[in-house]
Design a protein that fits this description.
It contains twelve helices and eleven strands. It is α/β, with parallel strands linked by helices. The longest helix has 15 residues. The model has no long low-confidence stretch (mean pLDDT 95). This is Metallophosphoesterase.
């Protein structure tokens, strides 16, 4: 199935816009983490670096996760569990949704097929939840029964966590979002579809952006800033490099595993 068709099906079930978060002031050290894609090992290592770095800084700290926690890598379930767990004292965390979380929910809600989700890397996610598709196909040769089993097996607390994720975090200085924005629209008028899927219309536009946009979604070899766009998706599931950007007192510092 063409990627655009999966994209249309993935967002079709979300008739109501995803929640938007806003902070009226961003005055604390803020760490932004790119696409994890099931690499629990890298997330754990990067968090240790962040906690060590933050120990030298005053006051509370914020971690912003840019989405795509699941699929492709080997430990999606463990990543979601870690994001649901409390952080050390003094830290807050805001997790945004990515297109892969929306695809998992679209499958769970019957909006896309199992094959559609597998095409996006969903088999690795199911494996992390203890689901072996090939073995189950022998046990449940009828697709409907197979889907019913898998959808029942996926833990409700994880699905509910993913359902509650906002789709962007807006602050006076910076907008945090998974994929980017449509430069032709105001931030208030952005479509969910663009916020988690947009690529070239965001990257190639000469339209001035309203503020710094920190995003992931499209893997790059190293975090790249182009004008007011900062991409911190360094393809962790394949490259072994998960990247974070620290924002503090008008400066941005990038670090990776």
């Amino acid at each position: 199935m063409a990627a655009n068709t999966i994209r249309e099906k993935t967002t079709r079930g979300f008739n109501q816009r995803r929640r938007r978060e806003r902070l009226d002031i961003l005055d604390m050290p803020t760490y932004v983490i790119g696409d994890v894609h099931g690499r629990y090992d890298l997330l754990s290592a990067l968090e240790r670096k962040i906690f060590a770095d933050a120990a030298e800084l005053p006051g509370g700290k914020l971690i912003v996760m840019l989405g795509d926690y699941i699929d492709r890598g080997p430990a999606s379930a463990q990543v979601v569990s870690r994001l649901m767990a409390p952080l050390p004292n003094g830290f807050d965390r805001i997790c945004l949704t990515g297109n892969h979380e929306m695809a998992m929910l679209a499958y769970a809600d019957g909006e896309i097929s199992l094959d559609d989700w597998v095409a996006l890397g969903g088999e690795a996610t199911l494996n992390s939840y203890g689901v072996d598709i090939q073995t189950l196909r022998q046990q449940y040769p009828r697709q409907k029964k197979l889907d019913t089993f898998i959808r029942t097996w996926l833990p409700d607390d994880h699905l509910n966590f993913l359902r509650r994720l906002p789709i962007l975090l807006d602050t006076p200085q910076v907008l945090f979002v998974h994929a980017g924005i449509d430069p032709e629209r105001t931030i208030a008028a952005q479509d969910d579809d663009d916020l988690v899927f947009i690529r070239s219309r965001f990257y190639d536009s000469a339209q001035p952006l309203p503020k710094l946009i920190i995003h992931g979604h499209t893997p790059v070899k190293q975090a790249e800033a182009h004008g007011l766009r900062l991409n911190i998706d360094t393809g962790a599931f394949r490259s072994g490099k998960l990247t974070a950007a620290r924002l503090w007192q008008g400066h941005i510092h990038v670090t990776s595993t």
